[in-house]
Design brief:
homodimer; alpha+beta; four-stranded mixed sheet; 9 helices
Chain lengths: 218, 218
């Protein structure tokens, strides 16, 4: 098993964390998003959409979309579980993950930033405000759930990390890249602190990957 | 069981189709997105993010995010199944659904169109091009998978409708609302045609819901 990723990609980072939590070894093959490698025909043959991550199984199957990949890993490597045992719990964990992975993160990925810059001629300061706004809108929605719902524990759902924590923690990485004020999301930041006590999260951080700069310029 | 939706919401439409495929009766409570009802405190108490759909269970639990809701319905009402039996198949179905529900649809929802208009002062024609572009980018990515992968059958994955078909069909509804040229996505349109032969899809169409106009103005 190997996967296509990139140090800076928060979606690839989700898969990296899941693999680390499961203790599954998989080589990361870098696709340089800053040089547009994801749009070249060689990579489009692997991932038609031209995005990372892609998980390559040993039989040649290419799995796409980070949440789908993580649920696959959870189904095929059940320990430790990344999803609750009950249907309502799974719905809550998937819902929290999807607030980030559907309604937050896709708004700030390279293709959107490029469209804002090149097609809409939006200046850099305004693009940064766009990214900050949508990153925080998702985290505020997650925070509202975490702060009022009894299912919240040490982590987003109970006392062990789930798919929701993986998505929320990577979104906080993004919030920090963009210097967002995380003051309005204390419940998120408490859970983030718990995640970062775990080696699987800590060592999967974008800036700790090969090829990453010491500090991020966006 | 009841759910909060709106005739025009494509995410609520996904839940409506899933309920119809399952033969589960659930009252739809309208939240008028065009009058901003989703942002009022009464609805924020139900759905912190201020979006539809929300599925209200009889025990008072509020489930959020359409894909999470549909997987919950599939787990609690297993017939007919909306997910494949094998882990790789589930990953493909979730991946196709997520291309639409993560990377396509969230870019054209009301809060984004409002931000483009009010915060970025983007004119209507340019906003329409934005919506057309991102709706079709998602459908082209789905089309590339459907046209080259052996798992594609009468529907996106095999010969029965799944979560993927629900997401893809509603995205085609969106493409038609915005007068997109669907010529470049023939495999998507073939599957869409199969979906629309099923009463569950056909009668769930946004323009067939109470309160909907006869034609759409966006």
């Amino acid at each position: 098993m190997k996967y296509y990723g990139f140090w800076r990609s928060l979606a690839a980072c989700r898969v990296r964390i899941a693999l680390a939590l499961k203790g599954v070894k998989a080589e990361e093959i870098p696709v340089n998003l800053m040089q547009g490698e994801q749009l070249k025909p060689e990579y489009r043959a692997v991932n038609a959409q031209g995005v990372v991550p892609t998980l390559m199984l040993d039989d040649g199957s290419a799995l796409f979309e980070s949440m789908a990949i993580i649920e696959y890993l959870d189904e095929t490597h059940p320990q430790p579980p990344l999803m609750p045992k009950d249907a309502k719990g799974r719905a809550r964990v998937r819902g929290l993950a999807q607030i980030v992975a559907c309604d937050g993160h896709p708004l700030v990925v390279p293709r959107i930033r490029n469209y804002l810059e090149k097609d809409l001629a939006i200046d850099e300061a305004t693009r940064t405000r766009w990214c900050q706004h949508w990153i925080m809108e998702a985290l505020k929605a997650v925070d509202a759930h975490l702060s009022k719902e009894k299912e919240t524990g040490r982590f987003c759902h109970g006392d062990a990390p789930t798919l929701a924590d993986i998505c929320v923690a990577t979104q906080v990485f993004g919030a920090r890249f963009y210097n967002c004020d995380t003051g309005p999301v204390p419940a998120v930041m408490r859970v983030f602190g718990e995640c970062m006590k775990l080696e699987a999260f800590e060592r999967s951080h974008p800036l700790k990957q090969p090829g990453a700069p010491k500090e991020l310029k966006h």
